[in-house]
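Input (structure):
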């Protein structure tokens, strides 16, 4: 299977997973298990948010404008409450390093940036 055949959302999630898995493996073998758990925790939270956002975006396109507006606001609010609760849990869950979790949160954005750069370079070749 070629990378181009994989759907956009799955490619971004896969790249982010690879980034976090490598960071977690390095941290684990260096004896920093709380950092390893932090990378994985951050990835799981941001991946869940991204999946819900992708599903919601497809559903909103098929709705009437007024209903889509209300549903989009509800989805936005719900996703950020979910992320807020996940961050607040880090305050009390000492087995996970907060800084590693924050890096895990931003790894999906890094994967999106890689995807955009790859797509742009391929378009320039044409």
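Output (sequence):
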């Amino acid at each position: 299977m070629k990378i181009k055949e994989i759907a956009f959302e799955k490619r971004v999630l896969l790249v982010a997973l690879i980034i976090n898995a490598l960071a977690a493996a390095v941290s684990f073998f260096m004896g920093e298990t709380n950092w390893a758990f932090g990378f994985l925790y951050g990835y799981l939270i941001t991946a869940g948010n991204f999946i819900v956002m992708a599903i919601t975006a497809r559903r909103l396109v098929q709705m009437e404008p007024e209903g889509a507006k209300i549903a989009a606001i509800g989805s936005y609010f719900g996703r950020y409450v979910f992320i807020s609760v996940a961050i607040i849990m880090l305050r009390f869950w000492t087995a996970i390093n907060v800084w590693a979790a924050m890096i895990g949160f931003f790894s999906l954005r890094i994967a999106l940036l890689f995807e955009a750069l790859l797509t742009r370079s391929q378009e320039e070749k044409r």
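Notes: The mean pLDDT is 88. The helical segments are 8-29, 33-61, 65-92, 98-125.
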